[in-house]
């Protein structure tokens, strides 16, 4: 087995920063890169983060260095644009996260004891982050929860913040009751209200579903990703079964595809 090449992190980071500067050079750089700004690059930043998560989900370890590199490029790209405006540079980004990590780990870099449970560590972290928020003049309980987070993730964070000050359901049973209530309101909106009201009621139901996930200690994003993967596997099984007969899904009907779906589900469970 070939030994991996061990590169010097400092020189490779410096090389990447220099390449980005050259790409953004107004006289000799790439026209596309020169035209970009923070807003136009932001969607790519989100996309690259999702591609990293996808590679991890698929355990595609050979792809992961490239995907992480793509994500790192986004940091360098934003830092280069900021540097051009005299705002900050890549070194400032690295310093900011280094300072934050040291501040948030006094049990590693300070005098606090490491002899604590994971739950106590989370509690300590929240206290430290509260100090950070106070330094940013974030006064409200919900201040600082990023607007750009995936909606389900943001819902969990908002609910966690509210729960810390006592605004929370006692347990999953009460959340399930609320889900029944929101479901009834969604049915009513479907039958008697317009599209805006329907969307609002659907959002309320999703928000309560996220709350149920929180009470059950389930990551709703991960749960939905698993459901997506399950749907993909079983629908591909339908396609494969039909292809074996020289047909496609559009050549079938719902009753047959339902039967093939059940077969795929039974086969999966038998293989567990």
Helices, strands, pairings?
Blueprint: H1 9-23, H2 31-35, H3 38-57, H4 64-84, H5 90-104, H6 106-109, H7 118-135, H8 151-164, H9 172-192, H10 195-215, H11 220-243, H12 254-271
GO molecular function: nucleoside triphosphate diphosphatase activity
Protein name: Nucleoside triphosphate pyrophosphohydrolase
EC number: 3.6.1.9
What does this structure look like?
- The structure is a single chain.
- The chain has 272 residues and is mainly α.
- It has 4 domains: 86 residues, Orthogonal Bundle (Helix Hairpins); 35 residues, no CATH class; 79 residues, Orthogonal Bundle (Helix Hairpins), CATH 1.10.287.1080; 51 residues, no CATH class.
- Helix 3 runs antiparallel to helix 4 and helix 9 runs antiparallel to helix 10.
- The protein starts with 8 loop residues before the first helix and ends with a helix.
- InterPro entries: MazG-like_dom, NTP-PPase_MazG-like_C, NTP-PPase_MazG-like_N, NTP_PyrPHydrolase_MazG.
- Its EC number is 3.6.1.9.
- It comes from Paracoccus aerius.
- Keywords: Hydrolase.
């Amino acid at each position: 087995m070939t030994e991996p090449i061990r590169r010097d992190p400092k020189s490779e980071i410096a090389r990447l920063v220099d390449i980005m500067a050259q790409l953004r050079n107004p006289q000799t750089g790439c026209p596309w890169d020169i035209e970009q700004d923070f807003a136009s690059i932001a969607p790519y930043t989100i996309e690259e983060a999702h591609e990293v998560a996808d590679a991890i989900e698929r355990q595609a370890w050979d792809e992961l260095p490239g995907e992480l590199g793509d994500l790192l490029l986004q940091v360098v790209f934003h830092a280069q644009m900021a540097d051009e405006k005299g705002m900050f540079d890549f070194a400032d980004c690295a310093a900011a996260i280094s300072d934050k990590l040291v501040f948030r780990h006094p049990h590693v870099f300070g005098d606090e004891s490491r002899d604590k449970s994971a739950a106590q560590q989370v509690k300590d972290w929240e206290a430290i982050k509260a100090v950070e928020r106070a330094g940013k003049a974030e006064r409200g309980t919900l201040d600082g929860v990023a607007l750009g987070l995936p909606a389900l993730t943001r819902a969990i964070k908002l609910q966690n913040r509210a729960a810390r000050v006592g605004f929370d359901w006692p347990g999953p049973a009460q959340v399930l009751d609320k889900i029944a209530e929101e479901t009834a309101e969604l049915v009513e909106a479907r039958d008697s209200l317009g599209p805006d009201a329907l969307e609002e009621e659907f959002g309320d139901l999703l928000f309560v579903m996220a709350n149920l996930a929180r009470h059950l200690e389930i990551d709703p994003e991960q749960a939905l990703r698993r459901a997506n993967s399950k749907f993909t596997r079983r629908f591909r099984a339908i396609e494969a079964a039909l292809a074996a007969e020289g047909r496609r899904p559009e050549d079938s009907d719902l009753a047959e595809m339902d039967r093939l779906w059940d077969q795929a589900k039974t086969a999966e469970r038998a293989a567990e």
